[in-house]
C-alpha cells in the first residue's frame, strides 16, 4: 500500500502543482510581459532591454519558488498521507493475521475521521470473530466430551457382552439404546446448526398464524410432556393480522424452545406458553418452572455455540 496508494496521492499533488506552475509561467510570458511593455511605452521608456530583464527575473524567481513549493508540498503531503494511510496499512497486516487464525490483532484508533471510524469498525469485527472462534472451540470440546461419554458406555456394555460378563438381557439392551439415542440427539443438534446457517439464504415466507403454528408443534410434544407429568398452560390472544415468515423455520424455533422447556423442567413442573400484544408486534413467552440462570450465564444464552 505504501508503494501504490501513497505515491498515487502524492503524484496527484505534484501534477496539480506542475499545472499551476505552467499556468503562471504562461501568464507571465503572455499577459504580464505584454502589460509591462505597454506600461513602458506609455512612459516613453524603451521596453526592449527592460522587457528581457523583467521576464528573466520573473522566470528565475518563479523557478526557485516552484522548486521550494514542490519540495514543501511533497514533504508535507508525504507525512500527511502516510499518517492517514497508516491505519489502512495496519488493517492489511491484521487481516493477514486473521486469515491465518490469529484474532488477537487490533488497529490503533488515532483519529476520529472516516479512517478512524473504519478502524473502529474493523476492531469490532475482529473482536466478534475472536469471540465466535472461542465459542466454536468450546463447542467442539463440549461435543467431543458429550460424544465420548455414551461411546465409552456403549463400548463397555458391548465388551461385557462379548466377554459374557454381562447377560444379553432386555435391561442391558435398553441401556445400549439409551446411550445410542444420546448420540443421535447430539448429532441432530450439530446438524441443526448447519441447517440454520444454510437457512439464512433459503427462506420461503408466507402469511401464517403464529398461534396455529404453536398449537401444531405443541401437539407433537404432548406425549413427552405427559410422560414427565408436566402441566402445560397455553393462552393465545387473537392474531390481528398474519405473520409474514417461513413456517418451517418458525416451527423449528418453537420446537427448540419447547424441547428446552421439556429438558430443564423437573417432573410435575409447569410449562406456560402465551402471547402478548405490543403495539405492532406480537410477543410469545415460553416460561417453565425449574432452576434459574446465573447472572454469569445470561449474556451468553443466545450465543449459537453456548
Structure description:
With 306 residues, the protein is mostly helical. The protein has three domains: 5-102, no CATH class; 129-199, Helix Hairpins (Orthogonal Bundle); 205-300, 2-Layer Sandwich (Heat Shock Protein 90), CATH 3.30.565. It is built from six helices and five strands, in the order ααααβαββαββ. It has helices at residues 5-42, 47-99, 114-162, 170-199, 210-227, 247-264, and strands at residues 205-208, 231-235, 243-246, 270-278, 281-288. The strands form two sheets. The protein has a three-stranded mixed beta sheet, covered by helices on one side. A two-stranded antiparallel sheet has the order 1-3. Strand 4 (270-278) and strand 5 form a beta hairpin. Helix 1 runs antiparallel to helix 2 (47-99), helix 2 (47-99) runs parallel beside helix 3 (114-162) and helix 5 runs parallel beside helix 6. The longest helix is centred in the N-terminal third of the chain and has 53 residues, at 47-99. The protein is elongated. The protein starts with a helix and ends in an 18-residue tail after the last strand. 5% of the residues are buried. The mean pLDDT is 76.
**What's the story with the biggest beta sheet?**
3 strands, mixed
Give the topology string: H per helix, E per strand.
HHHHEHEEHEE
Question: Beta-strand percentage?
Answer: 5-15%
Distance between the termini: 40 Å
List the topology elements:
Elements: H1 5-42, H2 47-99, H3 114-162, H4 170-199, E1 205-208, H5 210-227, E2 231-235, E3 243-246, H6 247-264, E4 270-278, E5 281-288
Parallel strand pairs: 2-4
Antiparallel strand pairs: 1-3, 4-5
Helix pairs in contact: 1-2, 2-3, 3-4, 5-6
Amino acid at each position: 500500500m505504501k508503494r501504490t496508494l501513497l505515491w498515487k496521492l502524492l503524484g496527484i499533488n505534484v501534477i496539480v502543482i506542475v499545472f499551476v506552475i505552467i499556468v503562471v509561467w504562461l501568464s507571465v510570458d503572455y499577459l504580464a510581459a505584454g502589460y509591462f511593455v505597454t506600461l513602458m511605452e506609455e512612459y516613453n521608456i524603451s521596453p526592449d532591454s527592460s522587457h528581457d530583464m523583467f521576464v528573466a527575473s520573473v522566470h528565475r524567481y518563479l523557478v526557485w519558488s516552484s522548486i521550494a513549493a514542490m519540495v514543501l508540498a511533497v514533504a508535507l503531503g508525504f507525512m500527511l498521507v502516510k499518517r492517514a494511510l497508516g491505519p489502512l496499512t495496519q488493517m492489511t497486516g491484521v487481516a493477514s493475521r486473521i486469515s491465518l487464525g490469529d484474532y488477537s490483532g487490533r488497529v490503533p484508533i488515532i483519529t476520529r475521521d472516516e479512517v478512524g471510524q473504519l478502524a473502529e469498525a474493523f476492531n469490532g469485527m475482529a473482536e466478534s470473530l475472536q469471540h465466535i472462534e472461542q465459542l466454536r472451540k468450546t463447542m467442539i470440546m463440549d461435543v467431543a466430551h458429550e460424544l465420548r461419554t455414551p461411546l465409552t458406555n456403549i463400548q463397555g456394555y458391548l465388551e461385557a457382552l462379548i466377554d459374557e460378563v454381562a447377560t444379553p438381557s432386555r435391561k442391558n439392551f435398553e441401556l445400549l439404546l439409551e446411550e445410542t439415542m444420546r448420540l443421535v440427539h447430539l448429532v441432530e443438534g450439530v446438524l441443526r446448526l448447519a441447517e440454520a446457517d444454510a437457512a439464512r439464504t433459503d427462506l420461503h415466507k408466507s402469511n401464517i398464524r403464529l398461534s396455529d403454528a404453536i398449537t401444531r408443534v405443541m401437539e407433537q410434544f404432548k406425549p413427552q410432556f405427559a410422560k414427565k407429568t408436566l402441566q402445560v398452560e397455553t393462552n393465545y390472544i387473537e392474531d390481528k393480522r398474519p405473520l409474514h415468515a417461513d413456517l418451517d423455520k418458525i416451527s423449528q424455533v418453537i420446537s427448540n424452545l419447547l424441547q428446552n422447556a421439556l429438558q430443564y423442567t423437573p417432573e410435575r413442573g409447569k410449562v406456560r406458553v402465551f402471547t402478548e400484544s405490543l403495539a405492532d408486534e406480537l410477543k410469545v413467552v415460553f416460561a417453565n418452572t425449574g432452576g434459574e440462570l446465573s447472572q454469569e450465564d445470561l449474556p451468553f444464552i443466545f450465543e449459537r455455540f453456548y
